[in-house]
Design a protein that fits this description.
Elements lengths: L27 E4 L3 E3 L21 E6 L10 E12 L7 E14 L7 H6 L8 E6 L19 E12 L8 E6 L11 E11 L7 E7 L5 E4 L7 H6 L8 E6 L19 E9 L1
Antiparallel strand pairs: 1-2, 3-6, 4-5, 4-7, 6-7, 8-12, 9-10, 9-11, 9-13, 12-13
Length: 280
């Protein structure tokens, strides 16, 4: 994942939620004002990262230090929150109230909330409360949302009331050719360039594609097949694929990352990959 691609290998209570999970990085409203799924960089971006829109920076203030479990990327969080428009003349910069909700549930780091929230809650503990001042490019950007005008900073006070470990569905190892390529065949020892995207396996989603956790960089991902440079499910699942083909891999944890936790990938996770072979 990241620059490493699907690399080396580095309770379970099945989790269900009625939250609509975004499988893209486009903006899509999920719950109220807070849960606007955005690109990781926000709905808009500043031309100068040292001078955000409106001159407002991301600022975090701990109001209550929690004593419960530590919050990490990939946790299923339940929070209570109140939001305001930023007002430099108001106490704590809390201007017009725009939202208040209890019991909001989402996966931290999965772009199910505005970027300023995703970036600000890591390191909290359950029972903690934090005030977060968020610039527009990490909030609702140039389009705004509901009571939030375009290019407007916001302030949220967020209490973490619970966290659970994300759990995927389970399925056996499977290989499905979506498109059979017409070029050279991938063999052990071949140098491959591929485009790919990876999702957590979810029984309830189309094609079992749950939360998207990774995708190939621009220009594709390069590795040598069968050398342990990638997870075993890839080393086994891409043999025999032909250039220009597309293949779907369902990979159980024993052929992926096992009991290890890796960012959005929880322990003992089953994964779904769609892989296009660009070049052998």
């Amino acid at each position: 994942m990241g620059t490493d691609g699907p690399g080396r290998r580095h309770k379970r209570t099945r989790w269900r939620s009625n939250v609509v999970f975004s499988q893209t990085r486009r903006c899509a409203q999920v719950i109220g004002v807070l849960t606007l799924a955005t690109c990781l960089a926000g709905c808009g971006s500043s031309s100068n990262p040292l001078a955000p829109v409106g001159g407002i920076y991301l600022r975090v203030t701990d109001l209550i230090t929690g004593t419960g479990p530590l919050v990490e990327i990939g946790d299923v969080l339940t929070i209570n929150q109140v939001g305001w428009l930023y007002d430099s003349s108001a106490p704590d910069n809390k201007g017009q109230q725009i939202d208040a909700a209890n019991g909001i549930t989402f996966v931290l780091g999965a772009s199910q909330v505005i970027s300023g929230i995703d970036q600000s809650l890591t390191g909290m503990r359950v029972g903690g409360k934090r005030r977060v001042q968020i610039p527009p490019d990490l909030a609702f950007g140039p389009t705004g949302s509901g009571a939030v005008p375009p290019d407007t900073p916001v302030v949220f006070e967020i209490e973490v009331v619970d966290k659970q470990q994300l759990v995927t569905g389970s399925a056996p190892f499977s290989i499905t050719d979506i498109t059979v390529g017409t070029g050279p065949e991938a063999r052990v020892g071949s140098r491959l360039i591929v485009d790919y995207a990876g999702w957590l396996y979810n029984d309830d989603q189309p094609d079992n594609r749950g939360i998207r956790f990774d995708e190939s960089p621009a220009g594709g991902f390069t590795f040598i097949l069968g050398t342990g440079a990638v997870i075993p499910g890839w080393d086994q699942g891409l043999v025999g694929m032909r250039e220009s083909g597309e293949r779907r891999l369902v990979i159980p944890p024993e052929l992926a990352y096992g009991a290890a936790r890796r960012g959005l990938i929880p322990p003992n996770a089953t994964l779904v990959f769609y892989v296009t072979l660009i070049r052998v």
